[in-house]
Design brief:
The complex is a heterodimer of chains A (108) and B (121).
Chain A lengths: L8 E4 L5 E6 L9 E5 L6 E4 L13 E6 L2 E6 L8 E8 L6 E3 L3 E5 L1
Parallel strand pairs in A: 1-9
Antiparallel strand pairs in A: 2-6, 3-4, 3-7, 5-6, 7-8, 7-9
Chain B lengths: L2 E5 L3 E2 L5 E8 L6 E8 L6 E7 L4 E3 L7 E6 L4 E6 L8 E11 L2 E2 L4 E2 L3 E5 L2
Parallel strand pairs in B: 2-12
Antiparallel strand pairs in B: 1-3, 3-8, 4-5, 4-9, 5-6, 7-8, 9-10, 9-11, 9-12
Classes of the chains: A mainly beta (108), B mainly beta (121).
Chain lengths: 108, 121
Amino acid sequence: SYGLTQPPSVSVSPGQTARITCSGDALPKQYTYWYQQKPGQAPVLMMYKDSARPSGIPERFSGSSSGTTVTLTISGVQAEDEADYYCQSADSSGTYWVFGGGTKLTVL
Amino acid sequence: QVQLQESGPGLVKPSETLSLTCTVSGGSLRSYYWSWIRQPPGRGLEWIAYIYYSGSTKYNPSLKSRVTISVDTSRNQFSLKLTSVTAADTAVYYCARGPGNSSGWYGNDYWGQGTLVTVSS
């Protein structure tokens, strides 16, 4: 079955740039979506169609895509950005959707 | 503002059927896809299924034989049934709008708060 691969953890100091990657064979064909989840809360959509920011999402969040890897970049990381981040996409035929395993972002 | 609320039993016995309903307020089901997503305790998100307001569906292949998703536009609700549950089905179950609408794919932009369903005798 199709899967998306994320690093389990990323750590950065406040003010630095965090990059969270998501890899999958179908990513050149399918858009990727990113979610932020804080403990005890529902996920929040942070990015759609690889690099589009929903209304209300800070500009320090950006997305990019290159081949089979997409990247969520958080510039000038703040303490409030500490959370789990999940990528989401569809398989090559668009038949079903999957989430990556999630990346825990720690702000040191 | 669109709001979603999951409802259903918090405890289900092994081998029985898990049934959840999501009530949508502040907006119509029309023209949107609607999803069920779950998260086992301490683990990641798993997409279960989605349904278009008109009734077309897609299921996670690993759950397809046990899952049914349905929609009731008159009540502004959609529902999930998962049969033959085991302890592995213990999770927080979320309903969400998306991953798209009649114009395209935009992700799951509104989520319910989630409801914990425990499978135990």
